[in-house]
């Protein structure tokens, strides 16, 4: 009850009051834009992956709205605000209530974003089942450049998998032949034939008999195209299935991280700057995370849309 | 309260707009034009994301979104269609890959058909791009040719060449279709349609004189005439035909 009357509760109520309607309007606009923009000849999975801007828009509006409302509501968030002296006398602690304000804003954002993420992910056709993608790591050289060369990729823990995804980068070819790679695990081949790679960053999906994998070995059989396996170019797809609603809920939770960062930056700047500077910094911090793709939220939205489990 | 009034106002205007004739198309057209400057940079960013971490289907879906904003960009339509058809993400047996390639080919060709309404003067290049898509796909996916209707990829190509010639009659479109005849005739012979192949070759003899290079036209007519006589059971010298790689699709049927 004390928390509800303090900076946390005040901020949360204010954010819900003021940021909900813009977020709902943005959701309606996103749904309408997706209906207008939906690629008609794409399958559901690819259509959802192409709809990431419409998944982003309402969550971004909610994040920005909650941050602005929180920073504007609490007087000590920026300099020369009315009521700041009263708040400093009443609220104890080195942060002056800013921590609670940030928590209140992110709690409100979670309440707003959770139903939006659940509804929009169903609307745009996000796959109903998400699978966990495990990145395999390779120590040492990551290049296959001659027949007989092999690379070993290890997993941090055993994975029960039924598919593998490869996406190597190709260097300049030394001859006319595409490179063929044999995929094995613990000495036994996982595919009936070697995999042929021609183009750089070409996605190669391999279906394998479901089995437990702890490591993967790629051996070049022949070919003239050197292949470079950068981090993330070998992915093992687990057989565990998770529901879409769980993935969407995780996305709503992760989206709160953007506000924590933006409000932290705003609070730091607010120690010596006024409201316009703090507002600008919050806006820019959110923009570069959500729109420019700096940080994990952009990848998280793509992963949701592609049916990849976010954890 | 102000928000409520604004929301109701917007809803009523939207309802009124929805009662206009052809509302969906007009709304889509206006929205596309209006959103283009803001939407295009992010659409390209999304396309790059698809190239880096998505599959060919996602890249194709993103490409469709870009081309919805720039519908008259015919080369873009062709480029995205080719990339989609010729990229095989999911590996499997040759039959599985051929089946998936067939599905992608059908989808891409339907998309190129839809792009024709916005192509204007550039419709000929769109049709030529569509004409070459099926043969190139068949070369990349060996089992695909067997899954196509009678006549295979050459018949599909000829349909597009014929359409280009009908819409844009001229020496270029005529000659393109004319010099495609051996490929189409070979496909018809492989499908057991001997009479149609012979008729096609006879028509090619009649139109060979329309080629701009008369020396080439005479030589071409002579070769085609030799092929027609051989297929009709008459004695004909075929050495020149077997030396000319343009008639390679007909060689198996002349030996």
Structure overview:
The complex is a heterodimer of chains A (311) and B (255). Helix content of chain A is 48%, strand content 23%. Chain A is of the alpha+beta class and 311 residues long. Chain A folds into two domains: 2-131 and 243-306, no CATH class; 137-231, Galactose-binding domain-like (Jelly Rolls, Sandwich). In chain A, strands 1, 3, 5, 6, 7, 8 and 10 form a seven-stranded antiparallel β-sheet that branches. Chain B has 255 residues and is an all-alpha fold. The model of chain B has no long low-confidence stretch (mean pLDDT 86). Classes of the chains: A alpha+beta (311), B mainly alpha (255). β8 of chain A pairs parallel with β1 (90-91) of chain B.
Overall spatial form of chain A: elongated
Q: How many H/I helical runs of chain B?
A: 13
Query: What's the alpha carbon Rg of chain B, rounded to whole Å?
Result: 24 Å
Beta-strand content bin of chain A: 15-25%
The helix-strand sequence of chain B is: HHHHEHHHHHHHHH
Give the number of helices of chain A. 9
Distance between the termini of chain B: 87 Å
Give me the secondary-structure category of chain B: mainly alpha
Alpha-beta classification of chain A: alpha+beta
Fold blueprint:
The complex is a heterodimer of chains A (311) and B (255).
Chain A lengths: L1 H4 L1 H31 L6 H6 L2 H22 L10 H7 L7 H26 L5 E7 L7 E2 L5 E17 L2 E2 L8 E7 L2 E2 L5 E3 L6 E19 L4 E2 L5 E10 H27 L4 H16 L6 H10 L5
Antiparallel strand pairs in A: 1-10, 2-9, 3-8, 3-10, 4-9, 5-6, 5-7, 5-8
Chain B lengths: L1 H17 L4 H31 L2 H14 L4 H13 L3 E2 L2 H26 L3 H18 L3 H4 L4 H16 L3 H9 L1 H10 L3 H14 L6 H18 L7 H5 L12
Helix pairs in contact in B: 2-3, 3-4, 4-5, 4-6, 5-6, 6-8, 8-9, 8-10, 10-11, 11-12
What's a concise summary of this model?
By secondary structure, chain A is of the alpha+beta class.
Structural key phrases:
heterodimer, A: 311 residues, alpha+beta, 2 domains, 7-stranded antiparallel sheet, 23% strand, elongated, B: 255 residues, mainly alpha
């Amino acid at each position: 009850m004390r928390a509800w009357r303090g900076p946390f509760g005040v901020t949360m109520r204010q954010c819900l009051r003021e940021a909900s309607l813009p977020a709902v309007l943005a959701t309606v606009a996103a749904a309408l834009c997706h209906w207008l923009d939906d690629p008609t000849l794409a399958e559901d999975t690819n259509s959802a992956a192409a709809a990431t801007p419409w998944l982003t828009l309402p969550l971004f509006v909610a994040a920005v709205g909650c941050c602005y409302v929180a920073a504007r509501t609490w007087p000590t968030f920026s300099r020369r605000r009315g009521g700041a002296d009263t708040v400093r006398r009443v609220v104890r602690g080195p942060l002056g209530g800013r921590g609670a304000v940030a928590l209140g804003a992110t709690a409100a954002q979670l309440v707003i974003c959770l139903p939006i993420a659940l509804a929009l992910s169903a609307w745009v056709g996000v796959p109903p089942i998400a699978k966990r993608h495990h990145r395999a790591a390779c120590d040492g050289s990551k290049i296959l450049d001659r027949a007989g060369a092999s690379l070993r990729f290890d997993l941090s823990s055993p994975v029960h998998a039924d598919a593998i995804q490869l996406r190597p980068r190709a260097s300049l070819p030394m001859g006319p032949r595409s490179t063929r790679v044999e995929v094995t695990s613990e000495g036994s081949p996982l595919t009936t034939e070697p995999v042929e790679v021609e183009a750089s960053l070409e996605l190669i999906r391999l279906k394998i008999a479901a089995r437990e994998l702890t490591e993967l070995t790629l051996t070049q059989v022949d070919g003239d195209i050197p292949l470079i396996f950068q981090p993330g170019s070998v992915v093992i797809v687990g057989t565990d299935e998770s529901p879409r609603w769980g993935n969407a809920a995780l996305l709503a939770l992760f989206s709160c991280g953007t506000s924590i960062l933006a409000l932290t930056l705003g609070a730091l700047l607010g120690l010596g700057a006024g409201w316009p500077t703090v507002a600008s910094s919050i806006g820019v911090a959110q923009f570069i995370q959500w729109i420019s793709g700096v940080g994990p939220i952009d990848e998280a939205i793509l992963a949701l849309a592609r049916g990849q489990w976010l954890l | 309260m102000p928000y409520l009034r604004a929301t109701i106002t917007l809803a009523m205007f939207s309802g009124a707009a929805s009662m206009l004739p052809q509302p969906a198309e007009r709304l889509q057209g206006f929205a596309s034009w209006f959103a283009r400057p803001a939407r295009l940079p992010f659409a390209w960013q999304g396309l790059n994301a698809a190239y880096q971490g998505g599959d060919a289907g996602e890249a194709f879906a993103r490409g469709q979104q870009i081309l919805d904003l720039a519908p008259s960009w015919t080369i873009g339509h062709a480029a995205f269609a080719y990339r989609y058809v010729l990229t095989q993400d999911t590996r499997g047996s040759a039959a599985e890959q051929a089946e998936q390639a067939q599905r992608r080919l059908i989808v891409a060709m339907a998309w190129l058909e839809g792009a024709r309404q916005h192509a204007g003067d550039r419709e000929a290049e769109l049709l030529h791009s569509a004409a070459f898509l099926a043969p190139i796909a068949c070369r990349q996916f060996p089992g695909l040719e067997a899954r196509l209707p009678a006549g295979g990829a050459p018949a599909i190509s000829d349909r597009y060449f014929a359409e280009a010639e009908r819409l844009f009659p001229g020496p270029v479109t005529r000659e393109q279709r004319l010099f495609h005849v051996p490929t189409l005739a070979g496909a018809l012979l492989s499908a057991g349609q001997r009479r149609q192949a012979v008729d096609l070759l006879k028509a090619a003899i009649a139109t060979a004189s329309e080629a701009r290079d008369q020396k080439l036209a005479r030589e071409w007519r002579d070769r085609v005439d030799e092929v027609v006589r051989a297929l009709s059971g008459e004695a004909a010298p075929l050495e020149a035909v077997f030396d000319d790689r343009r008639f390679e699709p007909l060689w198996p049927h002349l030996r």
